[in-house]
Amino acid sequence: MFVAGDLLWYPVEGQRDECAAPDTMVVFGRPKGDRGSYKQWLEEGIGPQVVFEVLSPSIGFTEMARKLQFYSRHGVQEYYVYDPDRGDLLGWQRVDGRLELVGDMQGWVSPLLGVRFELEGADLLLFRPDGEHFATYMELAQQREAEQQARRAAEAQAAEAQAQATEAQARAERLAAQLRALGVEPTAE
After folding, report:
1. Exposed/middle/buried for 163, CB within 10 Å: 0-12, 13-18, 19+?
2. Closest CA to 47 of 14, 80, 13
3. Contact status, residue 27 vs residue 45, Cβ threshold 8 Å
4. The domain boundary residue, chosen from 110, 134, 158
5. What is the residue-averaged pLDDT of the chain?
6. How far is residue 67's CA from residue 81's CA, in Å, rounded to a whole number?
7. Are both 161 and 93 inside the same structural domain?
8. pLDDT band at residue 64, thresholds of 50, 70 and 90?
9. Which of 21, 104, 149, 174 is deepest in the core (most CB within 10 A)?
10. Both 38 and 109 in a single domain?
């Protein structure tokens, strides 16, 4: 599966004006990897099956209607639009060759991804097929910070233990030298 964000998608060779840059697109049947753009004719003709868009104040209704037509024309199977300012979520699913509006998105499960959509106030929550929710950016950042702190604490603890072991070894060597000076050969017993 290939997943990309804000990557230009060219569905038809030679038609440079026929393109879109979905906020996120999911393409089954294509390998992961970096691409400067997604040129469908170089990808065995496989276009994105799932597209996500997040509205921003700079995107108007006309632009969203144009994108819906583009995605419908080029075979997208599922199309989702989320407006974080208003807490609105819309979804379309391909039925009989065209994208049809999904009636109620609350609790909707993507047929292709198995992801469940929930709105909690204005916040969009996504749940994996196993029922666990996808972590938010902030949750991931907090998790990374906690892991880094734990790693730093473990490294500091290991360094302290090494310093103590080095000091103990030096102390043992000093005592052994003192015993030798007194004529006693220390043993390891």
Report:
1. exposed
2. 13
3. no
4. 134
5. 91
6. 11
7. no
8. confident
9. 21
10. yes
Same domain, 150 and 84: no
> What residue numbers bound the domain in which 170 lies?
135-189
Distance from C-alpha of 47 to C-alpha of 121, rounded to nearest angstrom: 33
Strand duo 24-27 + 50-54: pairing:
antiparallel
Last residue of a domain, one of 98, 116, 134: 134
Residue 148, H or E segment: helix 137-181
Report the relative pairing of strands 78-83 and 50-54 from DSSP bridges: parallel
Asked if residue 162 and residue 75 are part of one domain, the reply reads no
The one-letter amino acid code at 46 reads: I
Confidence of residue 129 (pLDDT cuts 50, 70, 90): very high
* CB neighbourhood size of 46 (10 A): 14
In this structure, what are the phi and psi dihedrals at residue 156, rounded to the nearest 5 degrees?
Answer: -65, -40
What is the tally of structural domains in the chain? 2
* pLDDT at position 189: 64
Q: Cβ contacts of residue 98 below 8 Å, gap of 6+?
A: 72
Q: Strands 38-39 and 9-10, how do they pair?
A: parallel
* Cβ neighbour number for residue 189 with a 10 Å cutoff: 3
SS3 (DSSP) at 51: strand
Q: What is the radius of gyration, based on Cα positions, of the chain? A: 29
Ramachandran angles phi, psi of 168, nearest 5°: -65, -40
Q: Kindly state whether residues 122 and 159 are assigned to the same domain.
A: no
